[in-house]
Amino acid sequence: MVGMNRRRAVALLAASAAFTIRATRVDAQSPRLSLMTAGKGSAFLPYGQGIAAVLTAAGIQVDVKESKGSNENLSAVDVSPTTIGAAFLGSAFDALRGDGFAAGTRHENVRALFPMYETAFMAAALASRGISSIGALNGRRVGCGPANGPAEGYFRAVIEIAGVTPVIVGGAPADQAKQLVNGEIDAFWQGASVLIPSLVSATNTVDCVVFGLAKDEIAEMRKRFPFMADAAYPAGTYRGQTAKVETVAAWNVVIAHKDLDEGLAYRITKAVLAAKDLPTTAGAAASSTNAANASKNTVVPYHPGAIRALAELGVKIQ
Q: 20, 48, 71, 285: which could form a disulfide with 37 (CB 3.0–4.6 Å)?
């Protein structure tokens, strides 16, 4: 009897070991994902680093990749089932239709996983330059973030509406904040979650004027870009800001390829949206990253795995 019990125990241990080996092999076969964000000084980068930490804790392998922002991220995701990324809905709007930066190439493989936060557009200028509006930027050197990125694209639309011709300078947001402080550019235009990190860096270092758009500029921008809405931020949002900033804004989403495994898409969405105290990990902007805001995305179809996770969290996607 004792010998039989021992044989059973050995058999159970062997079966357990075999299961562990099989489970390990399955985990090893799970794809390692790339999470596309943006450059240093952007809001996407720290947000993405926080999201990656949440996913890693949930057993999902992910590497954060810096990029030039939404446009590059959308193109990368469109061709890779193992790439996810942060994307502004305006860029996604162009990508899905094959317009704007994506002219001639419809990004038909892109799907949404979960909402991120709202992006607002505004500028800072050195107080010593006497600039406080888009109309005052004619002939001035203006940093707009990465060349041909979303911020530059919307800036070009704004200056066309305003009838001015600045000199547009491309570069990483963190670098352009330094250029503004050093007087190498006259103003710095950015779009991100407020407080925008690069504008905080500049305004905390040197006296600046932070400004948005005039009412007629806002109205025309909304006509051109139907996914945008009015946005306003009170005086004191940035150091030295003495007037309310009125501008336009739109949402960001995390995107994936349509062929990302449905179960993995479900796990990613559920892990992020069910995470406790996400702002502590991914920054203050992540306070808007919740299932209830899924409806803010009216541009990118949701991935089936994300739809299942959202349903479990009480949000039905039509």
A: 48
Nearest to 238 by CA among 283, 192, 293: 192
* pLDDT per position as a tens digit, 16-39: 444 333 333 334 457 899 999 999
Residue 120 has pLDDT above 80, yes or no: yes
- Of the options 2.60.120.260, 3.30.230.70, 3.40.190.10, 3.30.990.10, the CATH number for the domain spanning 27-117+252-312: 3.40.190.10
Q: How many CB atoms lie within 10 A of CB 260?
A: 26
Over residues 274-293, mean pLDDT? 95
The fold of 119-250 is D-Maltodextrin-Binding Protein; domain 2 (3.40.190)
